[in-house]
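Q: What residues go here?
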């Protein structure tokens, strides 16, 4: 019994096999671009891995861009801070030189002029830009952060405590959050004497006690801190720790400028049986105002949980120039962002007025504090910069690993591809040759 095979069936089978061979060859030719994955059906497992690796690569590239931008921002900031600390070092030296009582009025005027030039340079450095952004302006990076007034104003005069003084008086109502007291407000009496006000509890001390007398208490009574009775009087209700009581903000702006209420302030105390009227001591000087904010700019450097502090790449005015008695946490004012600049302007004003005594004590302490504040900020920024440099190295290594994974899962094996192409081409050519000889004879026999 013979089995008849129709010509249509034979032709269809031949065409299908020929088309399959052609399809295989075409797919192999697609890999000539270097990739063996063009669609999920090529290899579903490898394609799934390829997609995951590609997402990781895109994330890595974004983090690398963030880190690169962050490092550029921090290098610009660091360069400005280095120049600032250098200027402040010179400013300290000039303060020491100005404290020498042998300087005449002409000498002091020359030093004051040099100091003003240095402060103006600090303000200029505070307005350093990266592209079109001010690096020290916080998140208000499009607003010029530091502006010096052209006119002089009446600014309160702070008594900046030396290290030993601060240690002694810090036990007296220190509520500024740091556990220490660094400054007092200077008062002038109608008896011609100077007094100091602890703004944290309203206690008033004589100049002699704050500057020298406290040492006798330490020596004679073997105590390390001030106690009740050392004061000569108290301003009633002056206790920032309690709501509804007087604060520095009631009499001064956050830059230290005396307000109308401050101008009208006076209080009486009894000294040696006599009533003395006290008012706030002031000095006429220019002031610098800060128009940025204290918010950080974050540039995320790796996936995972958000770390706003660790990812912050900028430093702000309050960090560079600290706070003083007029804008610390106990003052009732918000941070000015220019405290140390205004303190340096006070030093400069004292130089101009040839106040050698003030310069020999408070002036040098202020200059030291200004320099120390900026150096601390520079150190913190340097630590963050090193962290980002370490992350940059890590991201570079990760990128190499991810790229290798992508290559392994998606790239064509050229040698293997060449062999497969030759095989498929040979099969295809053989099919064409065989079909050319067999199909016509089969059809003829059938017919």
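A:
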């Amino acid at each position: 019994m013979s089995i008849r095979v129709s010509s249509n069936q034979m032709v269809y089978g031949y065409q299908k096999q020929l088309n399959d061979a052609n399809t295989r060859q075409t797919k192999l030719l697609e890999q000539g671009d270097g990739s063996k994955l063009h669609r999920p059906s090529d290899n579903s497992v490898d394609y799934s891995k390829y997609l995951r690796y590609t997402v990781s690569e895109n994330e890595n590239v974004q983090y690398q861009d963030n880190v690169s931008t962050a490092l550029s921002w921090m290098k610009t900031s660091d360069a400005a801070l280095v120049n600032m600390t250098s200027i402040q070092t010179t400013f300290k030296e000039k303060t020491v030189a100005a404290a020498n009582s042998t300087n005449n009025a002409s000498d002091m005027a020359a030093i004051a002029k040099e100091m003003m030039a240095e402060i103006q340079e600090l303000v200029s450095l505070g307005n350093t830009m990266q592209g079109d952004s001010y690096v020290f302006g916080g998140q208000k990076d499009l607003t010029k952060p530091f502006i010096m007034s052209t006119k002089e104003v009446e600014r309160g005069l702070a008594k900046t405590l030396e290290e030993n003084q601060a240690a002694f008086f810090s036990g007296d109502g220190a509520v500024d959050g740091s556990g220490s007291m660094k400054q007092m407000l200077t008062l002038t009496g109608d008896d011609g004497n100077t007094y100091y006000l602890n703004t944290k509890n309203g206690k008033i001390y004589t100049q002699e006690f704050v500057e020298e007398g406290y040492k006798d208490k330490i020596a004679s009574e073997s105590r390390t801190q001030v106690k009740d009775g050392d004061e000569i009087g108290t301003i009633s209700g002056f206790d920032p720790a309690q709501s509804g009581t007087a604060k520095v903000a009631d009499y001064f702006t956050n830059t230290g400028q005396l307000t109308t209420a401050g101008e009208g302030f006076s209080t009486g105390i009894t000294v040696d049986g006599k009533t003395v009227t006290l008012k706030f001591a002031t000095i006429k000087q220019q002031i610098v105002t800060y128009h940025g904010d204290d918010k950080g700019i974050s540039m995320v450097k790796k996936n995972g949980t958000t770390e706003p502090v660790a990812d912050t790449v900028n430093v702000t005015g309050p960090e560079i120039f600290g706070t003083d008695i007029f804008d610390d946490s106990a003052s009732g004012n918000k941070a000015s962002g220019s405290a140390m600049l205004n303190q340096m302007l006070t030093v400069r004003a004292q130089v101009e007025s040839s106040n050698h005594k003030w310069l020999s004590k408070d002036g040098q302490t202020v200059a030291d504090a200004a320099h120390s504040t900026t150096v601390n900020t520079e150190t913190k920024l340097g630590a963050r910069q090193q962290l980002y440099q370490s992350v940059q190295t890590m991201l570079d290594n990760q990128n190499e690993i991810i790229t290798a994974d992508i290559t392994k899962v998606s790239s064509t094996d050229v040698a293997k591809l060449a062999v497969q192409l030759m095989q498929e081409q040979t099969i295809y050519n053989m099919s064409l040759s065989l079909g050319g000889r067999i199909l016509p004879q089969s059809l003829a026999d059938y017919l």
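A: Context that may help when evaluating the design: Residues 153-285 form one domain. The first helix runs from residue 7 to 30.
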